[in-house]
Design brief:
The complex is a heterodimer of chains A (391) and B (515). With 391 residues, chain A is mostly helical. Chain A is built from 16 helices and 4 strands. Chain B is built from 17 helices and 22 strands. In chain B, the strands form 5 sheets. Chain B has a 6-stranded mixed β-sheet, with helices on both faces. Chain B has a 6-stranded mixed β-sheet with strand order 16-19-20-13-21-22, sandwiched between helices. In chain B, helix 15 links the parallel strand 19 and strand 20 (461-466). Chain B starts with a strand and ends in a 6-residue tail after the last helix. The chains are: A mainly alpha (391), B alpha/beta (515).
Chain lengths: 391, 515
């Protein structure tokens, strides 16, 4: 029994660390971290990490490949959006379409260079990292005297990505948000129960009843906590819907589709995968095309949150995305890792960010703490892997 | 009686859940060549790791008495200090460095903080001469062949003042000529008083060099045979290894009818991917019929793998010429996918390098080459995938607790079975098996042969590439002999003997400079 408990603890180590860190910051902020507005902030401030880290995960799976250019590309694409919408007065729909198109073009070029010309990913994207920051800044400087373009007038654009569903004033209880929480709980519990039932029916190994109940209760507590807090903070942020949809879609792709499977096997052994008749170059191409598209989505989220495009937008985003993946257990060598882990990793980094800001930790110290957390996560992973190997 | 140089007494080594070594006793006399044989996973390597300090003192029970004193090695450095040097199966050389640099890696010549390069290369050359290498020690490792690299490893060991040399599968990646040279070198060292332990699967080599043979089975030493007291042959050793009589190393094929030509290759030439003017495969013609096992024998570097991979959707080479006929119809296969769809499977010789995804479970590896079979519109049917993996695991008798076991944790023989399962699941008409039994033990070999027999019984064609003569002769219906990119002979299995196959190769070399 002790062994089993230990096993469960080990398997969910990051989740437990996340909860502990969260509780630590609640105590440090004397409950401030527990306020509805900070729940809201946790989501809106970190939405970009979830989206970018999803793209980064797909790249990293193929063999520890990363994209250093995504942060700079956010700046560049933001500048283009600003020029289209605010300066040229184009409609939000057309602007969004053009921005997506630019993202797709960049993804194709990058994917082509990496997959078919064999440019090492970190060099190809380092070039983008340098160039797009410069290009973006130059565009902004030429279009505006302040070096920043405001989106304040683009109400539709702002609402789609950074608005609230069924918005109510802060402090008033938002009924639709609460109902959505209940619906989510029902879905989660149903999925768990049905999955266990089918497994039992087909005679596969399934989790025990106790584990099912514990898991369901914990999920309900977590979801309802968010639902109630968000209901007090004015409703469901639209960005949360975007994040949930993206996470679910990619969770499905990585675990249930043949294409998703190939991302893993290429990271495990690219040559074996190629000789098994898989077009490995196409998969590499898709990884970077996908990354660029998600970077475009990130641009929408970030520019609407700040209601402006400016030259510092997206700074260090690539590092946050990589860190979220690595802390979430995605192998730096490729071949292993999943969306669930990445979500935990991204949340942990978000909680640390927010917690330190609320406790008034100096910005420089925040960076030091993040660096240490990243290193600790990797060391922990390596030691855990070693322990398993000698078993 | 000569002095006992090494005695390992009652060695027991347990890993959590497994007793890898159980009360092992092992003695080596000074100046002898002692062969350690046993099936994969029997405990040979574990025993040698205990001896060399890789598993430090305290992690095992029992005593190591070396040169009259009880030793407690904590690290490899400790055992090397005493003159016990182990040469591992996987060569531990840095390709981009010179022979001399490699030889003294971690053992540098000169002052504490400054390497004396003259001394390094001077001494290196001296040791190279001892192992019969004429290369300068300034040549880079990547520029010499595997056979010579193995000799460099031995020279490196000599440079450490080895008194007891342990060679773990030294010839597994060498061709026959290089193997023979290495074994002769061992015999020469013996004359000079060196003591050696050799671990190998190649029993003809054991018979050739060993003074004594110790058989390890299931973590215990079963017996030690003295080759000078009685006549030891390969069958005698096999009996000791598997613990029973194997009457026939190659299972008989019954009720197989050989049908029409299934695949034919005509005027096939392949060029090197980097040096594009070099022909690696030169004007090869061959065919294989339904229900037939065709053996392709050749030494390493003869171009066999290159031939196979070029047929398999041009997965090797810069430019391929020639005609490929499947069922009498001329076909061009431009990628592995096209080859698989056309019914060809290529089972690689390098199962770890380009055969299996070691970090993934058996289930994933089994379905990898035929994901269409377990998916619909790109969405995986997890139940079906699981069922397929279980089916093949049972069919091929792969030993693993479940199909969720990672392939990296399996033994060589079981990995080979997973690799075969992957290709059998693509339902091929023609299987090209490249060294299907390399590095796996006698029992597993026999099972692989049975699988091959089942395949041809079902009307499939098998092309078996091998550098083990007995295997080629024992398993094939027809044999092609390959040397330096060309096919230099074809014979029926009944006519084939080791002598006339080797004669074919020697004649074709035409007395030219051996490479």
């Amino acid at each position: 029994m002790d062994g089993k408990v230990l096993e469960i603890l080990k398997k969910n180590a990051m989740l437990i660390i996340l909860v502990l860190v969260y509780v630590f910051f609640i105590i440090m902020t004397k409950g401030g971290m527990f306020e509805p507005l900070n729940f809201n902030a946790l989501i809106t401030q970190n939405a970009y990490v979830f989206v970018l880290a999803t793209g980064m995960l797909m790249c990293m799976l193929t063999g520890g490949n990363i994209d250093l250019s995504c942060g700079s590309f956010v700046c560049f694409l933001g500048a283009i959006g600003g020029i289209l919408m605010t300066v040229k007065q184009m409609s939000p729909g057309a602007s969004i379409a053009i921005m997506l198109l630019v993202g797709v073009i960049y993804g194709c070029v990058l994917g082509f260079l990496i997959a078919y010309v064999n440019v090492p990913p970190w060099i190809a994207t380092l070039a983008g990292y340098l160039a797009f920051r410069g290009w973006g800044t130059a565009l902004l400087a030429s279009a505006s005297t302040t070096g920043s373009i405001s989106f304040a007038a683009q109400k539709t654009f702002l609402n789609i990505f950074s608005g609230k569903l069924f918005s109510t004033p802060v402090g008033e209880f938002n009924i639709p948000c609460f109902v959505a929480g209940i619906v989510c709980c029902v879905i989660v519990v149903l999925v768990n129960v049905v999955s266990r039932a089918t497994k039992l029916k087909k005679g596969y190994e399934a989790e025990s009843m106790v584990s099912l109940i514990v898991k369901s209760v914990l999920s309900i507590v977590a979801i309802m906590l968010f639902a109630v807090k968000l209901a007090m903070a004015g409703g469901i942020p639209t960005v949360l819907v975007w994040v949930i949809v993206i996470v679910l879609v990619y969770s499905f792709i990585t675990s249930k589709t043949t294409a998703g499977r190939y991302f893993y096997t290429i990271g495990g052994n690219a040559e074996a995968t190629r000789l098994s008749g898989v077009d490995t170059k196409l998969i590499m191409f898709l990884a970077y095309l996908n990354m660029a598209v998600l970077t475009a989505v990130t641009t929408f989220i970030v520019t609407t949150r700040f209601q402006a495009a400016n030259s510092t937008a997206g700074t260090n985003f690539e590092m946050d995305a990589i860190a979220a993946c690595v802390v979430g257990g995605v192998s730096a060598y490729g071949g292993s890792g999943n969306i669930f882990g990445m979500v935990i990793g991204a949340t942990l980094i978000g909680v640390i960010n927010l917690g330190m800001s609320l406790t008034g930790v100096d910005a420089n110290w925040q960076k030091i703490v993040k660096g240490v957390v990243l290193l600790a996560a990797v060391v922990f992973d390596i030691i855990a892997a070693k322990k398993n190997a000698t078993k | 009686m000569a002095k006992i140089l090494l005695e390992m007494k009652n060695i027991t080594k347990t890993f959590p859940g497994v007793k890898a070594l159980d009360n092992v006793n092992f003695q080596v006399e000074e100046g002898e060549i002692h062969a350690l044989v046993g099936e994969n996973g029997a405990g040979k390597s574990t025993l040698m790791n205990v001896l060399s300090g890789i598993y430090p003192y305290g992690s095992y029970e029992g005593d190591i008495v070396y040169d009259g004193e009880v030793c407690q090695f904590q690290t490899i450095k400790d055992s090397e200090g005493k003159g016990i040097v182990i040469i591992h199966q996987e060569l531990a050389l840095v390709p981009q460095m010179s022979i001399g640099e490699n030889m003294f890696l971690g053992n540098e010549r000169g002052k504490k903080n400054a390497i004396n390069w003259n001394e390094t290369y001077g001494e290196a050359d001296k040791y190279l001469k001892m192992v019969g290498l004429s290369e300068s020690s300034r040549v880079l490792i990547k520029d010499i062949g595997t056979g010579k690299q193995q000799l460099v490893e031995i020279a490196k060991a000599l440079a450490k003042n080895a008194k007891l040399l342990i060679l773990d599968e030294p010839t597994s990646s060498l061709n026959e000529t290089d193997s023979k040279a290495l074994l002769d070198l061992m015999l020469e060292f013996k004359k000079k008083g060196m003591t050696m332990i050799i671990i190998t699967h190649k029993l003809n080599e054991v018979v050739y060099v060993a003074d004594k043979i110790t058989v390890v089975r299931d973590g215990s030493t079963v017996e030690t045979m003295n080759c000078h007291e009685m006549k030891i042959d390969e069958d005698r050793i096999i009996r000791g290894m598997v613990g029973r009589e194997i009457t026939d190393r190659f299972p008989k094929r019954t009720d197989v009818t050989i049908g029409d030509i299934n695949m034919e290759i005509k005027e096939w030439s392949v060029f090197h991917p980097i040096y594009t003017d070099r022909k690696v495969v030169d004007n090869v013609n061959f065919n294989v019929r339904k229900g037939e096992v065709v053996g392709i024998y050749g030494l390493m570097g003869a171009g066999r793998t290159e031939l196979a991979m070029s047929i398999f959707g041009k997965s090797y080479g810069s430019y391929t010429m020639g005609f490929l006929m499947l069922n009498g119809k001329q076909t061009v296969l431009k990628s592995p996918r096209e080859a698989i769809n056309a019914g060809i499977a290529y089972v690689t010789e390098d199962r770890k390098g380009n055969g299996l995804v070691l970090s993934n479970p058996i289930r994933v590896n089994t379905s990898l080459a035929n994901m269409k079979g377990v998916s619909k519109n790109g969405i995986i049917d997890t139940d079906k995938e699981y069922a397929v993996a279980v089916e093949y695991k049972e069919k091929l008798r792969t030993k693993a607790p479940t199909v969720e076991q990672n392939v990296g944790n399996l033994s060589g023989g079981n990995q080979q079975k997973v690799l075969l399962a992957k290709w059998m699941y693509t339902d091929p008409e023609i299987l090209i098996l490249d060294e299907p039994t390399r590095g796996i033990d006698v029992g597993a070999k026999y099972e692989i042969y049975c699988i091959i027999n089942d395949l041809v019984k079902a009307g499939k064609s098998v092309v078996m590439i091998s550098s083990e003569l007995p295997e080629v002769i024992g398993m094939s219906d027809r044999i092609y002999i390959m040397n330096e990119g060309k096919f230099v002979g074809e014979m029926k299995a009944e006519e084939a003997t080791q002598e006339n196959i080797m004669a074919c190769i020697l004649q074709s070399a035409g007395g030219g400079e051996p490479k």
